[in-house]
Design a protein that fits this description.
CATH architecture of the largest domain in chain B: 3-Layer(aba) Sandwich
Shape of chain B: globular
Largest sheet of chain B: 11 strands, mixed
Strand order of the largest sheet of chain A: 1-2
Largest sheet of chain A: 2 strands, antiparallel
Oligomer: heterotrimer
Chains: A mainly alpha, B alpha/beta, C mainly alpha
Radius of gyration of chain A: 32 Å
Order of helices and strands of chain A: HHHHHHHHHEEHHHHHHHHHH
Shape of chain A: flat
CATH superfamily of the largest domain in chain A: MetI-like
Structural class of chain A: mainly alpha
Order of helices and strands of chain B: HEHEHEHHEEHEHHHEHEHEHHEEEEH
Helix content of chain A: 55-70%
Helix content of chain B: 25-40%
Number of strands of chain A: 2
Radius of gyration of chain B: 22 Å
Structural class of chain B: alpha/beta
CATH topology of the largest domain in chain B: D-Maltodextrin-Binding Protein, domain 2
CATH superfamily of the largest domain in chain B: Periplasmic binding protein-like II
């Protein structure tokens, strides 16, 4: 900024050129000079941001983009079974399997096994995602493959009758596609078929759509609970004298600054069967000792703990909005004859909407991606979509399905983020 | 300010400097009382003998973590305690290193190691340390003497014995127990399970108690669930229940009917960073004395015949003989199922998948 | 609010006290869980609930054994002598750069105890992640608050997004990306035996992840202090002959320092509290305190976790006090009246 400072030059007589345009001290037209100066300061500003931008791109944005690509790309089958892949491309997926196809499968399995024993199982696992029973089929076939002789189709039938079932060949054809919508389809309970169409998953496998709905409902419920609990507290804090408000503010900020794990642990101690809350219920006689409530390791536990953890994110924005509402507005309303309720509902409350919106969206965005708390206190029915993403990343090792589920979740969150930016503006995000 | 940072950095270097001189191996096991028994019997004497260090990591069984590490080409585990079916599968799929059995020490009387280990204990990629069992248990103080659960059928009978049940979040052992409860003889369990009708039958039996089930994953959870009154009965690894009874005085009772017994083995993931040290640890921890020592900490049977006569009493209670609490003690072994490791090695993936879909639906 | 004016009606009074009662319940909801863990952590028995003895305030029902367990758990020989004399002796020897301290109780605890290791990892990772986040974040915030910054809105949204994107998605993406071998010999020449330059399951990987998660906080807090920043101060400095570096360190930095420090605190606490990225990216020897707590809770809730939790709450109280002091200092410096 210092370089553009204007230095008056009194030694020159003329500050304009022939056409009358203003000139800078060194004789260039002022407009041009200003544009140059602006470009310089733009570049400077950008250079200040550039290191972080590069860092975030490399360590955060690119990894996520690659993950999304992983959701539509899967070269497991085509890289391990190249022959089969090219033969299957010609197959119309309705006619009988041919000898050529069988030979390709056998050859591919033999050469894959020579590279590593783990490769045939990898292929089996990939095909198994399309049709159950493929892992053991591939294992068995790989074991016998080196001793096989033409005709291979008959040899395959001898190993296992499953090879007569066209479903396995169709599944291989689906798996052989490197760019595939199969995983995004699976993430919305659809099945990608060999002929390129989609069908519903069998009923007992349809879990993800209802899971997304459940996640959204839980996030909405937590948001609502946070509004209901946060609003009165923010109102009280913003109307108390500074000293008392600061003291009570500690009760909001302490949970905010306390580790998530600590608070989750604390809720286990509160909610479990032998926990504090049940002890109190038994003591005051709401329930008996052997009929204690199940408050944890289910949806109830998830919602209570999440509400507690996210409540400060709701209180703080509402509080800062309420602080800025001049008390004279309500007084004016009352002096004009409004009842307490009308003054509150028609004058005060609408002024707090920006705070509720900001807090609500933030809580919703954070809740929809929650993982740790449901994993620890959710039991079986308290699991949310994030838990299934982690499950497919770490346990079933179906990384592509995890990527597809994550992609859908990410799109949901980005829509909400965009809304947040429109309504609240990210510049106005405040902390503490 | 600058000086303070320098000082802190220097002391940090000084304090950490000596930490990584020797080999550090990552030993992965099942946590809780079981890992504790291994720490006491294996880790501590090995650290004292070699000067190496051990990072102890817990997991809940299965090959997923090993597979993820091998496939990502970034293995951090050096040695892991696996079930037999996983050892077979891992070996088949090239996830585990092959182990040369000649590194295993002979028994004190000179019997070669290959003859000293019990059947099934030595595998191409793994060496067994213990025999353990999945049983079910209940809190004795919650039932009067005449109305106690005695059979596997009682576990699945929520009319006669109301209350929540704890089950491991895995099809393993659950399907077998469901069939036994449904009237299948222990010897026929895997014949029936090998048919799709048999699998349907087992799931149908599980379905009958699904609403009352609290699922556990870590072996340390079942005794906790019982102690906290979160469940009335739970399946568990027998040693965990024994330890809660022996060291914490819990009034738990084990029902041995329909127990599913198995061996646990040490295996080394393919590409383990400290393979040599891990192999040394493996040979050291499966010698006669170490296996007998472990039995003083948890009620799992040693995998070497020569260890059996050395098994004595519980570590903190000289009057508590360990023998009668082992899964293989004659009184406990009446209706036992030998874990069908071949069945699970072949069908685990598909049954897991079905189990998870069943859970989520 | 605290005292009602004399003209309030009975109905208003009832409503007023009902409102206060509701607020009190909400405050109880907020704070009880955090307070309840402290007494529970002194349980003499390995349970997670109040025993009859504890409720009867019997002294035998309380003990500090779980605090000792933090120190001892994982040690190879916890029976060595352990007192302040041994401790200071070890401490001074450990500080000296050329020490050859014999293994003692504290060397053992420092190197082997699980929670101590986790604590060391947490501070180590947190320190470097915070340094990266604060350096890059402060520079970027200064750039972003200049009106000349091109594509300001879009870049700001991108830089804040680590705060918004679900952690599981972030961690999964990082796990996938950081597991690739960055050795050029591997991805250019396809050499399968190229030495591995893999970020996953290293300290560096976790530090980079945490730095990325911490930067949005630094940007937000520093930008907030720059809003009230009077640019004529910089010009005044420059007109008196100070170079850009000098104006930055002598004029701008002292004024935005509260924002930088509180952003740094946010970044540190983010790293200190983060467990999802650690679950995906860290190996067994890089376990942090929350990671250790996570597996502890999944496995078996021993009161040791409560003891650790109590210590963490005390740390949060200290942190809260520091932040409050900073806020006051910032307001004083910027000439705003303390509220």
């Amino acid at each position: 900024m210092t370089d553009v400072s204007y230095q008056p030059d009194t030694t020159r007589g003329s500050l304009t050129d022939a056409s009358g345009a203003l000139l800078a001290a060194d004789g260039t037209p002022l407009k041009k000079k200003l544009r140059q100066a602006l470009a310089v300061s733009r570049r400077r500003a950008f250079l200040l941001v550039a290191p972080l931008l590069l860092f975030i791109l490399a360590s955060f944005a690119i990894p996520i983009l690659l993950l999304l690509v992983q959701g539509v790309k899967d070269n497991t089958f085509s890289s391990i079974m190249p022959e089969t892949t090219s033969v299957l491309r010609e197959w119309d997926s309705n006619s009988e399997p041919t000898e050529e196809m069988a030979a390709a499968v056998v050859m591919d399995l033999i050469s894959a096994k020579e590279i590593s024993r783990s490769l045939p199982t990898k292929v089996g696992t990939r095909v198994n995602r399309e049709v159950s029973g493929a892992i053991s089929l591939f294992k068995k076939t790989t074991r016998k493959a080196p001793k096989m002789e033409a005709p291979f189709l008959a040899e395959l039938y001898k190993v296992d009758k499953k090879w007569k079932d066209p479903a396995y060949w169709k599944a291989m054809k689906i798996a052989s596609k490197t760019i595939t919508p199969a995983y995004y389809a699976a993430a919305v309970d659809k099945k990608y078929l060999a002929d390129g169409s989609f069908a519903d998953q069998p009923e007992d496998r349809q879990i993800y759509v209802s899971l997304f709905v459940k996640t959204i409902l839980v996030s909405g419920g937590v948001m609502l609970a946070c509004v209901l609990l946060g609003f009165p507290v923010a109102y009280l804090l913003s109307h108390l004298p500074a000293r008392q408000a600061n003291l009570l503010m500690i009760l909001v900020l302490l949970p905010f600054w306390t580790s998530l794990l600590v608070r989750t642990t604390a809720w286990i101690a509160m909610l479990q069967s032998a926990g504090v809350l049940n002890d109190i219920f038994v003591w005051i006689g709401i329930t008996s000792d052997d009929q204690r409530f199940s408050l944890i390791y289910n949806m109830t536990g998830t919602i209570i703990a999440m509400t507690h953890i996210l409540l400060p994110f709701m209180i703080l924005p509402i509080y800062s909005v309420m602080k800025a509402i001049p008390p004279s507005h309500v007084r004016a309303a009352k002096s004009l004859g409004a009842t307490n309720w009308t003054a509150f509902w028609r004058v005060y409350f609408p002024a707090t909407i920006p705070g509720i919106g900001a807090g609500g969206l933030l809580v919703f965005i954070l809740a929809i991606g929650y993982y740790i708390t449901p994993a620890l206190v959710g039991g079986q029915d308290g699991q949310l979509i994030s838990n299934f993403i982690a499950y497919h990343m770490q346990k079933s090792l179906n990384w592509s399905l995890a990527a597809a589920l994550g992609g859908i979740l990410l799109i949901l969150v980005l829509i909400l983020y965009w809304l947040y930016d429109k309504i609240v503006g990210i510049d106005n995000m405040k902390l503490g | 300010m600058k000086r303070a940072i320098l000082l802190a950095a220097a002391s940090g270097i000084a304090l950490t400097g000596s930490a990584y001189a020797a080999d550090t191996i990552t030993v992965v096991s099942w946590g809780g009382a079981y890992t504790k028994s291994q720490v006491e019997a294996y880790h501590k004497p090995w650290i004292a003998k070699t000067g190496n260090k051990i990072v102890s990591e817990d997991y809940n069984g299965g090959l997923a973590e090993v597979k993820a590490q091998v496939e990502a080409g970034n293995v951090t585990w050096d040695i892991v305690d696996v079930e037999l079916s996983d050892a077979i599968r891992g070996c088949d799929e090239g996830l585990l290193e092959e182990i040369d059995h000649s590194v295993l020490p002979d028994a004190p009387d000179g019997t070669p190691a290959t003859e000293d280990f019990i059947g099934l204990a030595l595998h191409d990629c793994a060496v067994a340390n213990i025999v353990w069992s999945t049983i079910y248990a209940y809190d004795g103080s919650k039932y009067n003497a005449f109305e106690r659960p005695r059979s596997m059928a009682d576990f699945f009978n929520t009319k006669k014995f109301p209350g929540k049940r704890g089950l491991r979040k895995s099809p393993k052992a659950n399907l077998e127990m469901a069939l036994v409860a449904d009237g299948v003889a222990a010897a026929d369990v895997y014949d029936i399970l090998s048919t799709s009708e048999g699998v349907d039958r087992a799931f149908a039996k599980l379905d009958s108690i699904k609403d009352d089930v609290v699922w556990w994953e870590a072996g340390a959870q079942p005794p906790q669930l019982l102690a906290d009154g979160e469940v009335k009965m739970t399946t568990a690894y027998n040693g965990r229940i024994f330890n809660a009874m022996a060291s914490e005085g819990k009034p738990f009772e084990i029902v041995w009917d329909g127990q599913v017994f198995d061996v646990d083995l040490w295996a080394i993931p393919k590409g383990a960073p400290n393979k040599e040290a891990a192999l040394d640890f493996l040979a050291f921890s499966t010698d006669t004395q170490r296996l007998a020592d472990q039995a003083a900490w948890i009620s799992y049977g040693p995998a070497r015949k020569s260890s059996a006569p050395l098994v004595g009493a519980y570590n903190s209670d000289p009057d508590l003989a360990m023998g009668p609490h082992m899964p293989t003690a004659p009184g406990n072994f009446m209706n036992a199922i030998a874990n069908g490791f071949e069945f699970w090695a072949d069908n685990q993936d598909e049954l897991n998948e079905r189990f998870n879909a069943w859970l989520a639906s | 609010m605290s005292s009602l004016p004399p003209y309030t009606t009975t109905g208003q009074r009832i409503w007023h006290y009902t409102f206060l009662f509701i607020c009190a319940l909400i405050f109880i909801f907020l704070i009880t869980p955090i307070l309840i863990i402290a007494p529970l952590s002194f349980n003499a028995e390995p349970y997670f609930s109040f025993t009859d003895g504890m409720l009867g305030f019997e002294s035998e029902a309380y003990s500090t054994r779980w605090y000792k367990d933090i120190l001892v758990n994982g040690m190879s020989d916890p029976t060595q002598p352990n007192n302040w004399g041994v401790f200071w002796d070890w401490f001074w020897k450990a500080l000296s750069p050329f020490h050859t301290a014999p293994p003692s109780f504290y060397t053992d605890a420092w190197e082997n105890a699980q929670w101590i290791r986790a604590m060391r990892n947490s501070f180590f990772i947190g320190f470097f992640a915070t340094m990266i986040a604060v350096t890059l974040g402060t520079l970027a915030a200064i750039g972003l608050s200049r009106s000349e910054m091109p594509a300001r809105g879009a870049i700001m949204s991108l830089l804040i997004s680590p705060l918004i994107v679900p952690l599981v998605v972030t961690a999964a993406g990082m796990f996938y990306f950081y597991s690739t071998n960055f050795n050029p010999d591997s991805w250019l020449n396809g050499n399968p035996d190229a030495s591995s330059w893999i970020l996953a399951q290293t300290y560096a990987g976790v530090i980079l992840a945490h730095a990325a998660l911490g930067t949005p906080f630094v940007i937000i807090t520093v930008t907030a202090t720059l809003v009230g920043f009077d640019k004529s101060l910089v010009r005044a400095g420059a007109s008196m002959g100070a170079g850009p570096a000098k104006t930055f360190w002598k004029i701008q930095m002292p004024l935005i320092l509260p924002g930088v420090v509180s952003g740094g605190l946010f970044a540190f606490i983010t790293s200190f509290d983060e467990v999802v990225a650690v679950l995906f990216l860290a190996g067994p020897e890089h376990r942090t305190i929350p990671r250790q707590m996570y597996s502890g809770i999944r496995e078996q809730i021993s009161p040791t976790i409560l003891a650790v939790a109590t210590i963490l709450v005390i740390l949060s109280v200290i942190l809260l006090a520091t932040l409050e002091l900073l806020r006051r200092r910032s307001e004083r410096l910027r000439g705003l009246s303390p509220s």
